């Protein structure tokens, strides 16, 4: 499947958001996921299916001082 992730098209094998986080090797504790404009809670990642028509935004937390 081809997804638009953070504005770039990318081919992935994932079926759910949880699969995508694993495939991209993303630390789920340090990211907020937006799917088609909606923030998806971590508890729903395993049941939220991906759709080529719905862009994904991964917002990473960055610390600093």
From TrEMBL:
InterPro entries: Beta-grasp_dom_sf, Mopterin_synth/thiamin_S_b, Thi_S, ThiS/MoaD-like. This is Sulfur carrier protein ThiS. It holds the Pfam family ThiS. It comes from Alkalicoccobacillus plakortidis. CDD domains: Ubl_ThiS. It comes from the Bacteria.
């Amino acid at each position: 499947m081809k997804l638009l992730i953070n504005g770039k098209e990318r081919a992935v094998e994932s079926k759910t958001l949880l699969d995508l986080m694993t495939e991209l090797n993303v630390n789920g504790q340090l990211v907020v996921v937006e799917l088609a404009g909606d923030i998806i809670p971590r508890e729903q990642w395993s049941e939220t299916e991906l759709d080529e028509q719905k862009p994904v935004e991964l917002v990473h937390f960055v610390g600093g001082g």
